Structures are given as C-alpha cells and as structure tokens.
Amino acid sequence: MSAPPGQDETGAYLIDRDPTYFGPVLNYLRHGKLVINKDLAEEGVLEEAEFYNITSLIKLVKDKIRERDSKTSQVPVKHVYRVLQCQEEELTQMVSTMSDGWKFEQLVSIGSSYNYGSEDQAEFLCVVSKELHNSPYGTTSEPSEKAKILQERGSRM
C-alpha cells in the first residue's frame, strides 16, 4: 500500500520548499531571532514565512524590508556649482537676483581691474551652488515656473 500524495510511508507530510530561504525560518523557530545573510533576499524569507503562516516572523521580515527600503531612498544630496565672472558694479544685482534654488557660496577677487572710462572696476568670481534631487531616472533639477517663463521668452526672440 502506497502513501497518499504529499505524505511519506510514515504519514509525515512532504513540503517542497526552497531550503535556502527556509533556513532563516527554521532558525527563527529554534531561537526566536531573525538572522538573514546579507546575500539573501528578505522577500524570499517573507515568502516562506507567509507560506508557513508565522505571523510574528512575517511582521519582522516586513519591518526589515521597510527599514532597508527607507535606507536606500535616503541618498546624499548632490550639488552643482557655477562660477560666474562679474565686475564690482554688477555684484550686488547678481547676488540679489539669484533664484531657482541657487545659493551664494564664495566670492573671489581675481585682482584684475580694468579702466572703463575714468573708473577702475575690480573683477570677481562668484561661486554659486544648487542642490540636485535624485529621481528613479537619474539626477534632475526641475526649473521653477519663473525659469520656464524666461526660457519661453528667450526662445521667442
């Protein structure tokens, strides 16, 4: 007489699951601690925990996945820098009219002066920066409405 499908001759149930992902489940049942190797996907362990309906382990693995995902979404802020050359008389207007997220970083006197009429004008390098925010498609910097309007006006000229 043969055993029914899914059982052996002693009546024990045979469950065909992935032993790689079952290891952390078995260790959790033995010790009450979740230990997942760093090269093992948490989603695979979650699948096993859900298959065996181990609610406390399901919650732990979901928390671990959420924690991992929140860490990967917190990427460091990137900056783009621009160096603008200007004369002394243009400096105040340039700094006061910066917009679209540009911030003044540093002012460097390049020491050269030129004669404009009878006046000497000092020249400066003005370093400005802007934060770039990451998107799933790479780093982007979305222009403001003011910048879009100015770009449209410039393209019509």
List keywords for this structure.
four-stranded antiparallel β-sheet, 2 domains, Alpha-Beta Plaits, 157 residues
Question: How does this structure look, described?
Answer:
The protein has 157 residues and is α+β, with helices and mostly antiparallel strands. It has two domains: 19-73, Potassium Channel Kv1.1, Chain A, CATH 3.30.710.10; 78-156, Alpha-Beta Plaits (2-Layer Sandwich). The chain contains five helices and four strands. Strands 1, 2, 3 and 4 form a four-stranded antiparallel β-sheet that branches. It is rod-shaped.
Outline the fold blueprint.
Elements: H1 19-31, H2 42-51, H3 55-73, E1 78-87, H4 88-96, E2 103-116, E3 119-135, E4 138-140, H5 145-156
Antiparallel strand pairs: 1-3, 2-3, 3-4
Protein name: BTB/POZ domain-containing protein KCTD5
Pfam family, one: BTB_2
Region (Disordered): 136-157
User: Largest sheet, described in full?
Assistant: 4 strands, antiparallel
The CATH first-level class of the largest domain comes to: Alpha Beta
CATH architecture classification name of the largest domain:
2-Layer Sandwich
Any idea how many domains? 2
Number of E-type strands: 4
Shape: rod-shaped
Question: Which residue ranges are poorly predicted, with pLDDT under 50 across at least 5 consecutive positions?
Answer: none
Instruction: Estimate percent helicity.
Output: 40-55%
Strand percentage lies at 25-35%
**Structural class category:** alpha+beta
Rg estimate, integer Å: 32 Å
C-alpha end-to-end distance? 92 Å
One letter per element, helices H and strands E, the order comes to HHHEHEEEH
Task: Give the CATH topology of the largest domain.
Answer: Alpha-Beta Plaits
Count of individual helical segments: 5
InterPro entries: SKP1/BTB/POZ_sf (IPR011333), T1-type_BTB (IPR003131)
Domain Potassium channel tetramerisation-type BTB: 7-57
GO molecular function: cullin family protein binding
GO biological process, one term: protein homooligomerization
